[in-house]
Amino acid sequence: MTEHEVAVVNVGHSDFGELEGQQVTEFGSRAVREALLSSNVEPDDIEEAYIGNVATTAQDQTSVIGQAILREVGVTGVPITRVENACASSTCAFQEAYKGVQSGESDIVLAIGVEKMTGVPTEVALKDMAGGADAEVEGAMGMTFMGLYGMRANAYMDQFGNVREELADIAVKNHANGLKNPRAHLQLNVDRDDVLESRMISDPIRLLDACPMSDGAAAAVIARGEIAEQLVEEPIYVDAAEMLSGEYLEEVKFWREELDERVAQKAYSEAGIGPDDLDVVEVHDAATIGELMHYEGLGLADRGEGASLVRSGDVMLNGRIPVNPSGGLKSRGHPVGATGVAQICELVWQLRGEAGARQVENPSIGLAQNSGGALVGEGGVSTVTILSNR
């Protein structure tokens, strides 16, 4: 079987936030329509589609969601598959689309992520999301994802010392970036004291350390490289797309992103690069401690040294290796099924120089890391996607 070069032709992205009165078919089709139009692709050109979606309780269309959305834009009569892998659902959908094109099975494929999370009571939404962890064991004890992040933060600080102020600075950074992103959910101007004085959620995680629950959709048109080059002036190439699940060992090191380390090494090997070659990064910052630990899991810093990237300014928008210029989950928002492809959208815009006020200077290579779920404290899945403008 011959492997083909794969490129992202273009992307589409709805607003993220509390999209009151809008159903998934409305904002989902809006993202797909933008992706198709900007790719110079007709609905009939799409050969198959993969849709990342968790189907939360706030969502009326819980099944055949891809068919319902794509019907709105005229993409019908093709294979349409829903992919669920907790918060990494749409990255996994993107990877399935990538493999279909890479293998030569298809020429042009659509990857979508979509979710509606608002419009139900918070306790209902939290119980729903608890199913992304070990529902039979941890869920029965009342564990939530912010509870898990609190435990990880405490384990990290027991191992490496207090980084409470650096975590607050990550929140400040991501909100500042989000203010430059017109599609972001939380448009907040906050400082360190605002974060440190916000309501405690799960010690030491405070309200402004945590991402919001959001509605939204994102889409990407993926094609063989030679076809993408005919459709747009500057396709963005997929240099690596890797995913691994946890090993769930008895001795889990809560202070270490071992799953990130393994999947990142696979992706770096596939792309033929290392962490020092990256120009822009999007990571899964459902809580600020998550972002800091992903620095280390991805090899941007040694173990225990993630906070140094914050203190030095390296991860800031104008720093050596900007992280989450979109605002991340923290500010852009986290409609769980859409987050992964939203990260891809940001990298495409950054690598094309189309990110506006949050544009990173002259990036060539970008990486997106997206996590999904957890079992016995270890990630259910971690994905790494590497894109370049060559």
TrEMBL record:
InterPro entries membership: Thiolase, Thiolase-like, Thiolase_C_2, Thiolase_N
Occurrences of domain Thiolase C-terminal (ranges): 262-376
Keyword annotations: Isoprene biosynthesis
Xref: CDD domains: SCP-x_thiolase
All copies of domain Thiolase N-terminal, residue ranges: 6-224
GO biological-process terms attached to the record: isoprenoid biosynthetic process
Pfam families on file: Thiolase_C_1, Thiolase_N
Record flagged with keyword Metal-binding: no
Superkingdom to which the source organism belongs: Archaea
Name the record gives this protein: Beta-ketoacyl synthase N-terminal-like domain-containing protein
Organism field: Natrinema soli
